[in-house]
């Protein structure tokens, strides 16, 4: 039965135990010792923060949850229980699953088996965190308050506070920062468990918004709670620092004083993003109160020590306020340095002695002792007052004493005495009394009635000798290195007028130092024994000071005596002599000023006379006039300038200056306004009437004369006749805008007027305008040929014709224009260029009609003496529109259009088109490239054979210039030769062609035969023909290349021949004398004058290809060719025709009697190598296949 009952009994116990484990509010644990298995009830899991059956526990797992600081005592307790079998109670900290530690109370017992071996331990765990934290906090508060009471160092107290707080929340780190007001930042106070590097980094964080939790809390004076440092904007500039040390949340509270001043901040840091709980808020609130108490106590103690030190230093070190402290028996216990200075006893000598032994007389000692007693016993304070005491030399000292009664820590009275030394004050009073007596004496001297300087200064010297008890006094004047006596009071043989070197007198010390010098015996200045006063008169004592007049040393006031002074000169003596010197200086200054005043009055009288003389005789008008408009005064010149006999007559007649004098009555009002604004007006120019009605220009300078209140009394000024200058200026203005040669407006005026027209057009947007840019054709040839005088006269005629035409154009005479073109729209731009500005056009055709008229007009020949010239004009037209913003743009386009007209042969007009811009650029590029063609060796020569039509033989070659551009290839001579002529390069090219031709001839004669009968036809430009050294240069070429003159035939265009002067014709004869042949090129195109033609030494005439083309069918061309051939033969010249391309043309010219010909029918131009091969042919004279040409030749 018992055996059956035991299992049942066991089951009942187990059921009861299970019931207790499930219903108890405490955690229950069971440890099976041998199996090392720990069983927890559900409450135990909840306490740890785990779900039921969350872990399989054993003893090691349990020990891992215990706080490291508590683990040892826990292990010891387990071991003891297992060994003894006794129960135990133990308080320790255990870690929850969230990482936080809680305080628990563990009660446990041991179960043993029959062998007395422990097989099971079981116990309960109760959460005692609240009680434990309260105990720790109370204990910590007690320790903190004790530290404050003991004046422990502030950092030690604050560290203790942090430790206490961290014991309440082990997962947090505390920090206290202190306010640094001068630098407006926070300094590290205490943070024992934060990393030192982090503490160093935040030391000095600014007190401002956005500087982390602490800086912002101090700035706002309110708590700043940051849950997540990584995302909060307050930590934007500091988050990397905090996160690098594992700090992710920061809760900061400002530490405030009772006066609401920020003393610092307290902060809790967490290692995970989190917010504070209620217990944390309470602890932080308590912590800031304790921190405020500690900080304020520390600051108070520091201030107390500082004040104590300050006042101790004040009393002990202050040099001017003697303070002593003594007890009721007058025994000394305090004695500062000022007391030592006053009485002569050091603190070591005085402290411990009786006051009566040191400084008190018996009477004074009795007074102090009685007063001290009455104050202690009756409360009657001792009144401050004067006392006579003695110093360590037993000399009497007058002092003023004040008293302070204090009680020390033992309650015993201490009397402090504060003394002021009155000795110097009484001495000063005596000195002031003496000085007052002297000043009264000096006043009587300075206000006395004296006849002259001698009597005045004698009184001063006599008084000085008496005051200073010296026998000699003098006033000496300084003149560079010499000092002369002016006034003397002495028994010594010293007289006024005596002079000495300054360096040999006592005065040298005064002059060198520019201050008062004194000595009572010569021994004080041993070097002065070598000076004149001592060597001569044995003067021992001296008192001297400089006399300053107008900031310079005038001289020296000196007093001397042969007696040695028993008493040194006092400061009062020096002040007295300086006052005397100032009086003397004032008298001298007044005297000098009086002399200057007299001189000024004399100069003023002379100036008035001089001014009156100038006023009457100056060649300039001078006046004074009232604001109302009449003259107060005027000089004779002004009267005569305005046509009046006298100033009186002018003043009498001109009573309304504004209307009677000024052509524009408002001018004087304008002058008055300017004068009031500026005070003075210079060069105000106006037109005025003379009395006879003549108008003249005057320039006025006027200023206003004011009374004391600033009101204008009158005006005064000068008037100058500037009529001649204005006339000259007008002439200069005219010259600036007119062409001197023609009298037309010039380029400057035209551009200015055109700019105004453009501006008006853009503003009004009504009316058309245009410019005609005119360039004369063939003027340059005439000017270069006949000289500039002829050219200038021709330009005048052109200008007059244009002016007359433009001024007189009405109705049908100008293509039915019904308006007159203003003549001032015509301008000469320079050279042979003119421009016309047409405004208010109703139709662009009006500008074209005007250009047609001018082109037609310029075709009419001009006659000058025996000459008659046909010029012609090329005109470029530009119509104004909104795209034009400056005159330069319009002129540029008109110039382009003009050149286009010229390029088309001249004598016509062209309207500008935008396509001309690229052409102009291409033309500029061509000019540039042509100037470099010679340098780049792009030019070469070709040779076109000239054939004899009678024999078929080769007469020679015409030399032709060719240009192969490095990029553009071959460029036609018809394109680049005119450009060369325009830019002045034709002469250079001509000489190059001539020199290359001579070189080629020399080469052929050397390779083939020295007797080679071949002629090269070379073109000669008009510019070359007009060169004065032409003959010499050609002669030099012939000689240097060793060729005869008859090998060259110089071709000159018909136009160039016509433009040759008598001097040029003589040059042609000189060229003939060298053996050269001369030809007229392009004959028939220049309208030759036969009267000139027969005077020229012509060898050959070349008929232009214009008359050859179509000659076989055109009867008129045949007639012209026949006429030219007949003319040439009559002049003794031979004929050559160019441009022959067909056999018919060749046969026709043979029939008409032409001697020579050239053209593609015979040969194209040959390069030098081909020409050389032709000349080397054994029968080069028959190298031309006439049968292929279809012509017959006479046999040789």
Description:
By secondary structure, this protein is an alpha+beta fold. The chain has 7 domains: 17-127, Beta-Lactamase, CATH 3.30.450.20; 132-308, GAF domain (Beta-Lactamase); 318-421, PAS domain (Beta-Lactamase, 2-Layer Sandwich), CATH 3.30.450.20; 447-589, 2-Layer Sandwich (Beta-Lactamase), CATH 3.30.450; 618-722, Beta-Lactamase, CATH 3.30.450.20; 738-917, Reverse transcriptase/Diguanylate cyclase domain (Alpha-Beta Plaits); 943-961 and 985-1177, EAL domain (TIM Barrel). It has 42 helices and 44 strands. It has an 8-stranded mixed barrel. Strands 8-7-6-11-10-9 form a 6-stranded antiparallel beta sheet. A 6-stranded antiparallel beta sheet has the order 19-18-17-22-21-20, with helices on both faces. Helix 15 runs parallel beside helix 19, helix 16 runs antiparallel to helix 19 and helix 26 runs antiparallel to helix 27. The protein starts with a helix and ends in a 7-residue tail after the last helix. The relative contact order is 0.03. Mean pLDDT is 84; it is low at 1-6 and 808-824.
SSE topology:
Blueprint: H1 2-23, E1 27-32, E2 37-40, H2 42-48, H3 59-63, H4 68-84, E3 88-95, E4 101-112, E5 118-127, H5 129-149, H6 154-168, E6 172-180, E7 185-190, H7 196-202, E8 205-206, H8 212-220, E9 224-226, H9 239-244, E10 249-256, E11 262-270, H10 278-317, E12 323-326, E13 332-335, H11 337-343, H12 347-350, H13 355-358, H14 362-378, E14 385-390, E15 396-407, E16 413-421, H15 423-446, H16 453-468, E17 472-479, E18 482-489, E19 499-501, H17 507-513, E20 517-519, H18 532-537, E21 541-549, E22 552-561, H19 571-617, E23 621-625, E24 631-634, H20 636-641, H21 647-653, H22 657-660, H23 666-678, E25 680-689, E26 695-706, E27 712-721, H24 723-737, E28 745-746, H25 747-764, E29 768-776, H26 779-786, H27 788-807, E30 826-830, E31 833-841, H28 844-859, E32 862-864, E33 867-869, E34 873-879, H29 887-903, E35 909-911, H30 916-933, E36 939-948, E37 954-965, E38 969-971, H31 973-982, H32 986-1007, E39 1015-1019, H33 1022-1025, H34 1030-1041, E40 1048-1053, H35 1054-1058, H36 1062-1073, E41 1077-1083, H37 1090-1093, E42 1100-1103, H38 1105-1108, ...
């Amino acid at each position: 039965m018992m055996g059956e009952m035991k299992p049942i009994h066991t089951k009942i116990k187990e059921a009861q135990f299970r019931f207790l484990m499930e219903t108890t509010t405490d955690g229950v644990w069971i440890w099976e010792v041998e199996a090392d298995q720990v069983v927890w009830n559900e409450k135990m899991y909840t306490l740890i923060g785990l779900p039921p059956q969350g872990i399989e526990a054993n003893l090691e797992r349990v020990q891992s949850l215990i706080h490291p600081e508590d683990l040892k005592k826990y292990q010891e307790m387990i071991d003891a229980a297992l060994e003894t079998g006794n129960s135990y109670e133990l308080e320790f900290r255990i870690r929850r699953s969230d990482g936080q530690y809680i305080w628990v109370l563990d009660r446990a017992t041991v179960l043993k088996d029959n062998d007395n071996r422990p097989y099971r331990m079981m116990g309960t765990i109760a959460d005692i965190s609240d009680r434990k934290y309260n105990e720790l906090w109370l204990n910590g508060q007690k320790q903190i308050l004790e530290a404050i009471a003991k004046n422990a160092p502030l950092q030690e107290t604050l560290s203790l506070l942090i430790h206490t707080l961290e014991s309440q929340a082990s997962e947090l780190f505390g920090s206290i920062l202190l306010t640094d007001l001068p630098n407006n930042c926070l300094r590290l106070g205490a943070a024992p468990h934060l990393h030192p590097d982090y503490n160093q980094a935040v030391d000095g964080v600014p007190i401002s918004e956005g500087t982390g939790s602490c800086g912002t809390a101090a700035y706002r004076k309110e708590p700043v709670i940051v849950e997540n440092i990584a995302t909060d904007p307050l930590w934007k500039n500091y988050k990397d620092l905090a996160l690098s040390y594992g700090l992710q949340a920061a809760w900061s509270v400002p530490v405030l004083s009772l006066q609401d001043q920020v003393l610092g901040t307290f902060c809790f840091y967490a290692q995970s993003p989190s917010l504070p709980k209620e217990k944390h808020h309470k602890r932080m609130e308590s912590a800031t109160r304790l921190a405020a108490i500690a900080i304020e106590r520390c600051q108070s103690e520091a201030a107390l020590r500082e004040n104590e030190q300050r006042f101790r230093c004040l009393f002990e070190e202050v040099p001017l306020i003697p303070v002593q402290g003594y007890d009721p028996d007058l025994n000394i216990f305090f004695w500062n340095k000022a007391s030592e200075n006053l009485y002569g006893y050091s603190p070591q000598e005085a402290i411990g002695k009786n006051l009566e032994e040191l400084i008190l007389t018996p009477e004074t000692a009795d007074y102090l002792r009685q007063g001290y007693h009455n104050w202690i016993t009756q409360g009657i304070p001792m009144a401050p007052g004067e006392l006579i005491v003695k110093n360590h030399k037993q000399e009497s000292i007058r002092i003023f004493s004040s008293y302070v009664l204090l009680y020390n820590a033992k309650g015993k009275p201490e009397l402090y005495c504060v003394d002021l030394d009155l000795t110097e004050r009484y001495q000063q009073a005596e000195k002031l009394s003496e000085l007052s007596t002297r000043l009264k004496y000096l006043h009587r001297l300075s206000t006395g009635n004296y006849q002259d300087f001698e009597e005045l200064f004698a009184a001063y010297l006599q008084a000085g000798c008496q005051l200073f008890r010296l026998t000699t006094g003098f006033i000496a004047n300084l003149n560079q290195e010499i000092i002369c006596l002016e006034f003397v009071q002495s028994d010594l043989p010293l007289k006024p007028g005596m002079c000495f070197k300054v360096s040999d007198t006592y005065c040298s010390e005064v002059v060198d130092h520019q201050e008062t010098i004194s000595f009572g015996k010569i021994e004080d200045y041993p070097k002065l024994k070598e000076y004149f006063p001592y060597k001569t008169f044995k003067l021992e004592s001296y008192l001297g000071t400089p006399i300053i007049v107008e900031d310079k040393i005038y001289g020296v006031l000196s007093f001397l005596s042969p007696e040695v002074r028993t008493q040194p000169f006092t400061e009062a003596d020096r002040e007295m002599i300086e006052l005397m010197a100032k009086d003397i200086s004032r008298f001298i200054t007044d005297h000098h000023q009086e002399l200057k005043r007299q001189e000024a009055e004399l100069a003023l009288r002379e100036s008035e006379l001089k001014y009156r003389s100038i006023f009457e005789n100056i060649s300039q008008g001078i006046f004074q006039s009232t604001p109302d408009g009449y003259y107060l005064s005027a000089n004779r010149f002004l009267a005569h300038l305005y046509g009046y006999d006298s100033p009186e007559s002018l003043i009498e007649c001109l009573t309304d200056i504004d209307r009677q004098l000024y052509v524009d009555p408002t001018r004087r009002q304008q002058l008055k306004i300017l004068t009031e604004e500026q005070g003075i007006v210079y060069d105000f120019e106006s037109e005025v009437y003379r009395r006879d009605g003549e108008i003249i220009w005057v320039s006025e300078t006027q200023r206003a004369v004011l009374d004391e209140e600033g009101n204008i009394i009158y005006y005064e000024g000068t008037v100058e006749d500037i009529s001649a200058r204005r006339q000259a200026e007008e002439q200069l203005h005219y010259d600036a805008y007119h062409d001197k040669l023609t009298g037309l407006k010039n380029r400057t005026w035209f551009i200015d007027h055109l700019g105004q027209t453009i501006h008006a057009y853009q503003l009004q947007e009504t009316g058309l305008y245009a410019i005609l840019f005119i360039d004369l054709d063939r003027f340059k040839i005439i000017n270069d040929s006949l000289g500039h005088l002829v050219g200038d006269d021709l330009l005048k005629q052109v200008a007059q014709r244009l002016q007359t035409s433009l001024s007189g154009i009405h109705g049908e005479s100008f293509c039915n224009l019904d308006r007159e073109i203003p003549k001032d729209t015509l301008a000469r731009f320079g050279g042979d260029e003119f421009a016309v500005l047409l405004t208010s056009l109703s139709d662009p055709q009006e500008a074209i009609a005007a250009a047609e008229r001018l082109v037609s007009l310029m075709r009419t020949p001009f006659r000058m003496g025996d000459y008659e010239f046909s010029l012609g004009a090329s005109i470029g037209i530009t119509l104004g529109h909104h795209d034009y913003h400056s005159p330069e743009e319009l002129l540029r386009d008109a110039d382009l259009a003009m050149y286009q007209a010229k390029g088309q042969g001249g004598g016509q007009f062209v309207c500008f088109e935008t396509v001309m811009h690229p052409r102009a650029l291409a033309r500029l590029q061509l000019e540039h490239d042509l100037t470099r063609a010679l340098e780049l060796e792009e030019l070469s020569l070709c040779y076109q054979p000239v054939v004899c039509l009678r024999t078929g033989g080769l007469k020679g070659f015409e030399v032709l210039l060719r240009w192969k551009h490095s990029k553009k290839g071959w460029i036609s001579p018809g394109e680049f030769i005119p450009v060369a002529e325009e830019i002045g390069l034709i002469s250079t090219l001509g000489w190059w062609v001539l020199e290359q031709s001579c070189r080629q001839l020399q080469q052929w004669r050397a390779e083939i035969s020295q007797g080679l009968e071949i002629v090269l036809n070379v073109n000669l430009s008009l510019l070359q023909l007009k060169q004065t050294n032409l003959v010499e240069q050609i002669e030099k070429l012939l000689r240097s290349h060793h060729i005869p003159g008859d090998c060259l035939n110089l071709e000159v265009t018909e136009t160039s021949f016509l433009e040759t002067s008598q001097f040029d014709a003589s040059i042609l004869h000189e060229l003939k004398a060298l053996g050269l042949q001369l030809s007229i090129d392009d004959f028939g195109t220049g309208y030759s004058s036969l009267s000139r033609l027969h005077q020229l030494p012509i060898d050959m005439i070349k008929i232009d290809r214009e008359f050859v083309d179509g000659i076989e069918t055109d009867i008129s061309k045949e007639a012209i060719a026949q006429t030219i051939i007949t003319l040439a033969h009559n002049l003794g010249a031979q004929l050559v025709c160019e441009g022959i391309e067909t056999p018919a043309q060749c046969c026709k010219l043979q029939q008409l009697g032409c001697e020579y010909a050239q053209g593609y029918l015979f040969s194209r131009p040959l390069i030098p190598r081909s020409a050389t091969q032709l000349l080397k042919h054994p029968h080069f004279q028959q190298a031309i296949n006439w049968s292929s040409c279809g012509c017959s030749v006479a046999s040789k």
